[in-house]
Amino acid sequence: MPVRLLAALLLGLLGFALLGPAAGAQDEPVLGDPGQPGETAPEGMAPPAAGPGAVGAGTEDSLEAAGVSSEEHVAGEGHAAPPVWLVLPFVALLVMIATGPLFYPHHWHHHYPKYAVGLGLLVAAIYLVSPLEDVAVLHAVEEYLAFIALLFALYVASGTILIKTDFEGTPRVNTAMLFVGAVISNFIGTTGASMLLIRPYMRVNRGRLRAYHIIFFIFVVSNVGGALTPIGDPPLFLGFLRGVPFFWTFTHIWYIWLPTLLLILAVFYVFDRRNAAESERAQRRRAGDPDVEPGEYTDVAAAHTRRHVAIEGKLGFVWLALIIGSVFLDPNVFGWVPDLHEALHLPFGIREVIMFGVAFLAYRTARREALEGNAFTFGPIAEVAWLFIGIFLTMQPALQLIAAFAAENATALNATTFYFGTGVLSSILDNAPTYVSFVAAAMGKFGLDVNVPADVACLAAPHCGDALTWYYLQAISVAAVFWGANTYIGNGPNFMVKAIAEEAGVACPSFVGYIVRYSLPILIPIYILVWLVFFSGLVPIHTF
């Protein structure tokens, strides 16, 4: 059974984390003199020369957090950086994800776990038997377990909540639902909001549901919406753990978030207005038939004019609250939280234990009517779990090479390169380590250390030694969150929403079709406009 195979694989990776030489064996980082943040002119004017060690200490230590040992970037010391050809398994996996459902769907559906796990283990084996720093494999295991614990817990908890409504799927209703979902994603995360709302969103549109409904849901609820708080998206939470003030993201991103969101919703409204089909609910109402489908609100008079919403399985909200609360159970946030990484050399923490426990309790206490109304199965989460084992392992060389490039070229990077570099790479890689790599490079420009919370807070401050520090952090933060919507693998909820929709019978576009038909003609022009207005230096939005 797939669940047993997945458990066996996780146990094998856990064994490596417990017994491997990398577990708990990292040396304490040696910090150099951070220097003094220098005054810098706005973009377009020549920046001052960086002081001694401007790129060194702050950047090297931060790369370790992104899976890169600082020794890899010191000539003649430690392990060699991964060769470029080691990125090929990652490229091969992306190509198969893109082409499998199109050209060999039957074979891909039955064998994709073997390809994903096989390529991942191939990369892991190369790290373990070569002079490369095998701590990258440990980081991949830790990141995967944290990723799948959150996704699995939110998937199960939200699946126990059945939202019933008699709203009809219309352009106005759909646009309002997407906007509400975008706001909610800042409180329960893009993953939580996506899992909670995707099923009722599909139900109100039954009969007129098209692929674009799912794609714009991914754009808005699963990505762009969660840019206002650290809870919203993993990169922002990682920044919070490292010292970015909790409300910094809201105060510095809302005026970019709002017009971007409204532009995307306006395009969606045009798409939906062109869809002349009526929802099944509207057809039945016009024919005088009652709503009888699972998940539809029926306890109303036939001639009522007021729309209703009812919720079955309200205990699920308690489980969601426990999951979101457990996200903060990190030794970096609360000193009293046990550090299982350091104490027992485990590749997971108390947070992951709680999340899996809550998922178990949520499923065992769920009302059968809610599960049946949501057509709940473990199929979508199993597909995501299999594919992302391979993705997390095979992308490690790419992440290390990117981190090395960012470290070596920190002084040459500006807001434009931070924005597009972070954005493009967040589209195809895990946006959290990509965020860390570019934040480390930005801090290196000012002699700051990404592992020192006071330095990170200084980077976020509008008037902390240099007028541009917060500006670079803003560009990186916006790009990491927004550009994750460009592909199915750009952010965790994306693929999950696709899997749920396809299980419900929606013909979602392929990996390439998603990019060519939606990302390139819709998102990229909007994101270029965001750059032009806020980060190009051509429009005097910011004052320094």
Describe the 3D structure.
This protein has 544 residues and is mostly helical. The protein contains 22 helices and two strands. Strands 1-2 form a two-stranded antiparallel sheet. Helix 3 packs antiparallel against helix 4, helix 5 crosses helix 6 and helix 18 runs antiparallel to helix 20. The longest helix is centred in the middle third of the chain and has 34 residues. It is globular, with a radius of gyration of 23 Å. The N and C termini lie far apart (60 Å). The N terminus is likely disordered.
Q: What are the SSEs and their pairings?
A:
Elements: H1 2-19, H2 56-65, H3 88-103, H4 105-129, H5 135-159, E1 162-165, H6 171-204, H7 211-220, H8 234-242, H9 248-273, H10 280-287, E2 309-312, H11 315-326, H12 340-344, H13 350-365, H14 368-373, H15 379-394, H16 396-408, H17 415-428, H18 431-444, H19 453-460, H20 469-482, H21 492-503, H22 511-535
Antiparallel strand pairs: 1-2
Helix pairs in contact: 2-16, 2-18, 3-4, 3-15, 4-15, 5-6, 5-11, 5-13, 5-15, 6-7, 6-9, 6-21, 7-9, 7-21, 8-18, 9-22, 11-13, 15-21, 16-18, 17-18, 17-20, 18-20
